[in-house]
Amino acid sequence: MTRGVLSVAALYNAAWVVLLLLRPELVLLKTPPLFEALIAGIGLVGVAFAVCAVKPRRSLLGLTILAKLGGVASFAIAVNLGYLAWSQWWMPVVNDLVWLPLLVRIWNQEVWS
C-alpha cells in the first residue's frame, strides 16, 4: 500500500503543477504574487512523495504532511485575499485533507529507514 499511495500522490501533485502552469485561470480567480513559488512547492512535495515511494524516509514524509496541513491554511488565506472563492472549498479537501489520513497511516508503519 505504501508505495502505491505515495506514487499516486506524486502523480497527483505533478498533474496539479501541469494544470497550474498551463491553465491557472481554471483554478485561480487571479494570480497570486508568488505564483511560481506555489508551483515549485507543489512540485517539490510531489518529488518528496516519489522519493518516499522508492526509499521510505520518515523525515521527508513528515514534511509532506506539514505541507498538506499548510495547504488547508493557505486556502483560507487565499480566499481572504481574493485569489480563491469559498465555493472552491473542494480544493483543500481533495488536495490536502483526503491525503492526510493515508499519510499518517503510512507514517505509523514500520517501513522507515
Q: What is this entry, summarized?
A:
By secondary structure, this protein is an all-alpha fold.
Explain the overall architecture.
With 113 residues, this protein is mainly alpha-helical. The chain has one domain (2-107). The chain contains five helices and no strands. α1 (2-22) packs antiparallel against α5. The radius of gyration is 14 Å and the shape is elongated.
Mean pLDDT: 91
Approximately what portion of the residues adopt beta-strand conformation?
Answer: under 5%
Q: Which stretches of 5+ consecutive residues score pLDDT under 50?
A: none
Number of domains: 1
Q: How helical, in percent, are the residues? A: over 70%
Please render the helix and strand layout as text.
Blueprint: H1 2-22, H2 35-54, H3 58-80, H4 90-97, H5 99-107
